Amino acid sequence: MSAEIISGKELAKSKREEMKKETARLKESGIVPGLAVILVGEDPASQSYVKAKQKACEETGILSEMDHVTTSISEEELLTKIENLNKADHIHGILVQLPLPDHISEKKVIETIDPEKDVDGFHPINIGRMMTGQQAFLPCTPFGIVEMIKSKNIDIQGKHVVVVGRSNIVGKPVGQLLLNEHATVTYCHSRTKNMQEYTRSADILIVAVGREHFIAGDDIKEGAVVIDVGVNRNKEGKLTGDVDFASAEQKASYLTPVPGGVGPMTITMLLHNTILSAKWKHNLNGF
Ligand code: GUN
């Protein structure tokens, strides 16, 4: 078997074209979705993510405001900035790029963001809403993964989903979203015994551990759908996922590449959430 590739890049492109039309329609009613991004410090990876988010906003008709501050900012000063953005009428989404320096509490930062502007979907209120199936901002990477699976009309109901990794940003919420889609979900993590027993029984395998070649063809059931969330730099400086692509391709029915897979969808769902936030604020339905 040679897997069909699910191109996040292609799906992101078509979704962004739709969003561009949506922002143009909103503009006719005087609504311009606005995203505020706060970047603390000079971490190169964070800088490049933030730049990509801003560029995507610009291309989609979303206003983006960037506040780049040095690591000498105090926690209190940062929280004040967030409180001011909570009050700003033209801002519908607030994103504080993580990780933050050690002297600033991520928990306090996330909990200071107004849940109605939490387009990352990290606030405990949004996580609780997501878990109970209420209207919520869904975290962007898990949301993007579900969209990729649905884009191929893959049936999720009753399927065995195995999530490898249990981070708050990806592993835990993606399992929850797929549970909401009526999958049977198993989580594997660093203390799981006999992990291969689980991965080999997965109809849909989601790998988010941050280790190159963590999963190979031998760990995959014939015909499984394999979603690779990893973003690793190998010794040659090349971007790679958590899944050994060449061997996985021989076993899986569908497979996501790295780069060009989950990554472009994460930013796309951030745009989606920002537009949605602007629509909800003006009592318009989602899209
Ligand atoms: N750092 C890595 N991924 C993310 C993300 O999705 N949102 C924020 N705010 N920071 C991140």
UniProtKB/TrEMBL annotation:
Catalytic activity from the UniProt record: (6R)-5,10-methenyltetrahydrofolate + H2O = (6R)-10-formyltetrahydrofolate + H(+); (6R)-5,10-methylene-5,6,7,8-tetrahydrofolate + NADP(+) = (6R)-5,10-methenyltetrahydrofolate + NADPH
Domain (Tetrahydrofolate dehydrogenase/cyclohydrolase NAD(P)-binding) ranges: 139-280
Record-level GO cellular component terms: cytosol
CDD domains named among the record's database cross-references: NAD_bind_m-THF_DH_Cyclohyd
Binding site for NADP(+): G165, R166, S167, V231
Pathway it works in: One-carbon metabolism; tetrahydrofolate interconversion
InterPro entries according to UniProt: Aminoacid_DH-like_N_sf, NAD(P)-bd_dom_sf, THF_DH/CycHdrlase, THF_DH/CycHdrlase_cat_dom, THF_DH/CycHdrlase_CS, THF_DH/CycHdrlase_NAD-bd_dom
Keyword Cytoplasm: no
Record family assignment: Belongs to the tetrahydrofolate dehydrogenase/cyclohydrolase family.
Record's protein name: Bifunctional protein FolD
Organism: Bacillus selenitireducens (strain ATCC 700615 / DSM 15326 / MLS10)
